[in-house]
Amino acid sequence: MRVLVIGTGGREHALALALARDPGVSEVHAAPGNPGIGEVATLHDVDPMDGGAVAALARAIGAGLVVVGPEAPLVAGVADAVTAVGIPCFGPSAEAARLEGSKAFAKEVMNAAGVPTADARFCSTPDEVAAALDAFGPPYVVKDDGLAAGKGVIVTDDRQAALDHAAGCGSVVVEEFLDGPEVSLFGICGWSERDGTTVHPLLPAQDFKRISDGDQGPNTGGMGAYTPLPWVPDDLVDEITRTVLRPTVEEMARRGTPFRGLLYAGLALTSRGLRVVEFNARFGDPETQPILALLDSPLVPLLLGAATDDLAAVPPPTWKPGAAVTVVMASKGYPETSSKGDVIVGTETLARDPHVQVIQAGTALVDGHLVTAGGRVLAVTATGTDVADARAQAYEGVAMISFPGAQWRRDIAAGR
Ligand code: AMP
Ligand code: GLY
User: Fold this and answer.
1) For site-directed labelling of 223, which of 11, 38, 184, 405 has its Cα 20 to 30 A away?
2) Atom of ligand 1 nearest to the CA of 177
3) Each residue's pLDDT tens digit, 80-114
4) Beta bridge partners of residue 275, listed in sequence order
5) Which ligand 2 atom is nearest residue 278's CA?
6) Would you identify the CATH topology of the domain 180-313?
7) What is the mean pLDDT of the chain?
């Protein structure tokens, strides 16, 4: 089968690598992709936001499955456009992607489904924001209601900073602060008239969202991740599947807008129990990199099963033993600014290491040289016998790569 991956980041590179390993896949194609993806896939210069163009490309190459990586095309209806021409597409409809596209909608669904989440107020004026901040008290949590690439949230003790952030957003969600460690759990979700809801959870992972060590500095798209999490209770995945993922997918089906795709639950394990921090409607970045590095069973049956309403017939995924750790190297100035065109050296040396992958995100080829293209540049992903081993190998990999102004955290998967 030919598979087309839509997107350009590290998540899409990790997906392309996992698809290329799947014995059922004859060719991987990607649009627009990046130089790393180009090593395992045929790249096409098609706008990922243009549903008609993506559907036409899928037809032209005879794709048996399209996988939409990022949220923006999903929210814009690209999966609907592909499905409309009769090609299976992994990724929810625009209606179902609202679980990520609108925080207000996600809260409404969670409340209707009885899914535990932070108390929240929706505010569209400065007075409403001030009243909500004072009702919840510090630390203050203010979120842009729309898509903001992980950077629309401020968590601060500084009331003025919270007000200023809200003023720059338009409508916002002000919510109660959740204490406790965060966990990301992804479920491959399907729904059909015949089988009802099917959820296959993947491995739990942890993401490191702040730019600097010790969770300091501004939020980013994610600076590293690891899986599995040796410190979570054995039944955590079952509990999240039962209390969060399933009821949400069931509520979406009840509303006539079934969720078919990957539901990403970002959770806080608070002193009062688990709470959803956010939903995303697609694979998370960078958690996907270590999760897929441990996937032992083929990826296509899961994605195709969800896309064709036959997920109930697909066995749950199986995993390699051990652990995987991903360390992101970001460009100079990220996340405030972005630097482009800095030459990257060292990736070739790592290409021969069976335990370490250099997963590319913001890269470009200029005159045959790999250079930075801004934002998060690449993600060094290593597998090992346990988290400490994988972590040591990931940081050895990072030490072999350099580009001017590279930033990375030294404390990814360092233990809690
Ligand atoms: P979000 O875009 O909703 O995932 O928020 C980004 C990050 O902000 C989360 O991963 C948390 O680290 C932090 N955050 C969001 N909501 C809360 C909350 N209610 N309490 C504490 N931290 C939060
Ligand atoms: N890892 C955060 C995200 O993908 O939104």
Assistant:
1) 38
2) 20
3) 999 999 999 999 999 999 999 988 899 999 999 99
4) 268
5) 5
6) D-amino Acid Aminotransferase; Chain A, domain 1 (3.30.470)
7) 95
CA of 211 to the centre of ligand 2 (A): 14
Determine which residue's CA is closest to atom 4 belonging to ligand 2: 284
12 in contact with ligand 1, CB cutoff 6 A: no
The rounded distance, in Å, linking the Cα atoms of 263 and 186 is: 6
| Cβ(71) – ligand 2 distance below 6 Å | no
Q: Is the CB of 177 under 6 A from ligand 1?
A: yes
Q: What is the pLDDT of residues 395-415, one digit of tens each?
A: 999 999 999 999 999 999 998
Any ligand 1 atom below 6 A from CB of 178: yes
Cβ of 284 closer than 6 Å to ligand 2, yes or no, is yes
Instruction: Domain 323-399: give its CATH architecture.
Output: Alpha-Beta Complex (3.90)
pTM listed for this prediction: 0.94
Judged on CB neighbours under 10 Å (0-12, 13-18, 19+), 322 is middle
**Domain ranges, ordered by start, for the chain:** 2-90, 121-175, 180-313, 323-399
Cα–Cα distance measured from residue 19 to residue 282, given in angstroms and rounded to the nearest whole number: 16
What is the homologous superfamily of the domain 121-175 according to CATH? ATP-grasp fold, A domain (3.30.1490.20)
Closest ligand 2 atom to residue 221 Cα is 2
CATH 3.40.30.10 is the classification of domain 2-90: no
For residue 284, give the ligand 2 atom closest to its CA. Answer: 4
End-to-end CA distance of the chain: 43
Question: Rounded distance, CA 172 to CA 151, Å?
Answer: 13
Q: Please report the beta strands in 241-320, taking only residues with DSSP state E, as ranges in sequence order.
A: 261-270, 273-280
Q: What is the mean pLDDT of residues 148-153?
A: 67
Q: What percent of the chain has pLDDT over 90?
A: 91
Q: Which amino acid is at 120?
A: A
pLDDT digits (tens, 9 = 90+) for 261-311: 999 999 999 999 999 999 999 999 999 999 999 999 999 999 999 999 999
pLDDT of residue 351: 79
